[in-house]
Design a protein that fits this description.
Elements lengths: L3 E7 H10 L2 E2 L11 H13 L6 E5 L3 E2 L5 E2 L3 E5 L1 H12 L3 E2 L5 E2 L3 E4 L4 E4 L2 H5 L7 H4 L6 H11 L6 H12 L5 E7 L5 H11 L8 H10 L6 H16 L4 H7 L1 H4 L2 H6 L14 H13 L4 H8 L11 H18 L2 H13 L11 H16 L4 H18 L7 H12 L6 H11 L2 H11 L8 H12 L12 H6 L4 E3 L3 H6 L4 H4 L5 E3 L2 H7 L4 H14 L10 H10 L14 H22 L1
Parallel strand pairs: 2-6, 3-11
Antiparallel strand pairs: 1-11, 3-6, 4-5, 7-8, 9-10, 12-13
């Protein structure tokens, strides 16, 4: 069987096919991302007969109905939605949604004398030489003869009436231009579809498996897939742009009247949460927790009704899968679930988004939280499992490299292969976080100059959890510094190391970093630790603070311990730098170990 077929459609037939539902556009209710000049350029290309690229659709598989008959699947548009929407806006006069969910017209003006297009503006709207909106000329009821006569008379060019008439006819003829439609075969898997898509698409755009899944979801109105899609999209949008709540409610009154809207509108009041999701995140969380699978290709197959054993497509599987996904999405966007999960994240010391680079760590943590709740595991045990799994995932880079989907699939299945999910956590800890990891591997991984290192972030998380103060700070803690953009500075000052011939990769070692109040760092300047720490110790005797507010020996000792400063730091010079780095790495690794055990 051919992997795809190519057919030519005229613009007007294509638009009619889409309007009738023969080709399903899954994203017509999503914001239109092209700007008006791109619409103008598309119309200009159609007018001049230039190619405007292929539209790519994927033939949905036919499914076996309960009575034994077979229903032919729709074609789902997977590339070309912006071009289709642009043509519908300019040619038919259809309104589009902007990025703030406001409906608006995109009007394209045309000058028949010079044969040029422009985005409608106040200047060409007032000029008699311009047709302010080509949609009126392209309407079936448009009277060409009377228009040409009136236009030529207004502009004093009656001698050019025939030329203007020919130009108007060429403009109207853009609806007859052909556009290639590539239909991908129904039996192709997502990986094959993705490869074909990339090879065909001249821009080399990568379409993710989540994109395919979302297209599949929103094109199915029988099982309210379009409602599920809107629930996901609007929820994620409100987390980013809460000010658009009123516009969504006004411009999509039908959805606003549904319980799904009631379930998500709380997101507009959530102030910059640590865990801010896009549609891919919500989809991945909902699917992983409800279906106990991690590969979104499996979701597309299930939503198509695929029976993994018989390899048939059955209507009951399709129906069940859509219903389960809808239920899972509602759980994922539920305010109570979301906020309880955020509390667990914060209780682990993760108080800022920058402390956790991998969104997939948070995604799996949330999926695990929801799955454990659905299994009715004790809430205290849920908190412990989720906190530890978050930390373990960061420390081992579990979802940051290779194939996170495969890791999701592996982990969610094994968590629920045991009667007690703590068993899988314990088994993983024994294999991944052995004594050798804490004493050797982690120490080695702290040997880096990458300031965004997950291991340095975990050290900061450990400090937050322990309520540690900044280096030489009397009251200001690490959490406050993180949340208020505190400064990370060098314990061995940068310029001091440069003057002594230390290269960048060495003076920027994360073992030389600490959160230090700016005013304290300014006073330290370029001094060696032996110099400035002698003065710090001295202020404990004189009770006159110079570097921060600590004036007691025991509080100074506790502060140095909290920041993993090795013994003897107060007398260190340049010759001690490498030994300092190694000893501090060991102390930092031990602090992270103690932190993990406390979760």
């Amino acid at each position: 069987m051919a992997r795809y077929s190519v057919n030519n459609y005229t613009v007007d037939v294509l638009l009619v096919d889409i309007k009738s539902g023969n080709i399903a556009i899954p994203e017509m209710q999503r914001p239109f991302v092209w700007d008006a000049t791109q619409v103008r350029d598309l119309i200009d290309s159609l007018y001049k007969g230039f190619p405007v690229g292929y539209i790519i659709v994927w033939q949905n598989p036919s499914v076996k109905l309960k009575d034994g008959t077979v229903a032919i699947g729709k074609k789902v548009l997977i590339d070309g939605q912006q071009r289709i929407t642009a043509m519908a806006a300019a040619i038919v006069g259809q309104e589009v949604l902007d990025s703030h969910y406001k409906w608006k017209r995109v009007c394209i003006a045309f000058n028949p004398i010079d044969e040029i297009f422009e985005v409608a503006n106040s200047a060409n709207q007032k000029s008699s030489k311009w047709i302010p909106d080509i949609a009126k000329v392209l309407d079936v009821s448009f009277g060409s003869f009377s228009f040409v006569m009136e236009y030529c008379q207004k502009n004093g060019i009656m001698d050019k009436a025939q030329e203007i008439n020919d130009t108007i006819n060429r403009l109207r003829a853009i609806q007859n231009n052909s556009i290639g439609v590539i239909t991908l075969a129904e039996d192709l898997d997502i990986d094959s579809v993705t490869e074909i898509f990339i090879r065909i698409n001249s821009k080399g755009v990568v379409l993710s498996q989540a994109d395919f899944a979302m297209s599949k979801i929103s094109s199915n109105e029988i099982y309210n897939g379009n409602v599920t899609r809107k629930t996901i999209d609007y929820f994620c949008h409100l987390l980013e742009s809460p000010e658009d709540l009123k516009e969504i409610k006004k411009n999509d009154a039908e959805f606003a009247a549904k319980p799904e809207f009631e379930a998500i509108k709380w997101a507009a009041a959530k102030n910059a949460p640590i865990y801010r999701t896009c549609y891919t995140d919500v989809l991945r969380v909902a699917f992983t927790y409800k279906f106990k699978r991690g590969k979104l290709a499996d979701l597309v197959s299930l939503l198509s009704g695929r029976d993994f054993e018989t390899r048939e497509f059955k209507i009951e599987i399709e129906e069940r899968s859509f219903n389960q996904l809808h239920e899972a999405v509602l759980q994922a966007v539920n305010q109570t679930n979301y906020e309880r999960y955020l509390m667990i994240v914060r209780s682990a010391g993760i108080v800022k988004k920058s402390l956790i680079r991998s969104q997939n760590v948070l995604n799996f943590g949330y999926a695990l939280f929801l799955a454990l709740r659905e299994r009715k595991v004790d809430s205290n045990q849920i908190e412990k499992i989720v906190r530890k799994w978050l930390a373990l995932s960061i420390l081992t880079g579990r979802y940051s490299s290779g194939s996170p989907e495969s890791a999701f699939d592996y982990d969610i299945k094994r968590f629920f292969a045991y009667d007690d999910p703590m068993q899988y956590l314990s088994i993983t800890e024994a294999g991944e976080l052995s004594e050798a990891y804490w004493k050797v591997n982690l120490v080695q991984r702290l040997n880096t100059s990458v300031a965004s290192s997950p291991y340095f972030n975990m050290f900061l998380v450990a400090q937050v959890k322990a309520h540690d103060k900044g280096f030489l700070s009397m009251e200001i803690d690490i959490e406050s510094m993180l949340e208020n953009r505190g400064d990370i500075h060098h314990l061995f000052p940068k310029n001091y190391l440069i003057k002594n011939g230390i290269v960048q990769a060495q003076y920027n070692q994360i073992a030389n970093y600490a959160f230090i109040q700016q005013e304290i760092n300014i006073k330290i300047k370029d001094s060696s630790p032996a110099h400035y720490m002698t003065e710090v110790i001295g202020q404990c005797n004189t009770k006159k603070p110079v570097y921060g507010g600590i004036i007691e020996q025991d509080r100074l000792a506790e502060n140095l311990k909290q920041n993993c400063i090795p013994d003897g730091f107060e007398s260190m010079e340049i010759g001690d730098y490498q030994d300092f780095l190694q000893r501090r790495r060991e102390l930092m690794a031990e602090k992270i170990h103690q932190y993990y055990d406390s979760l």
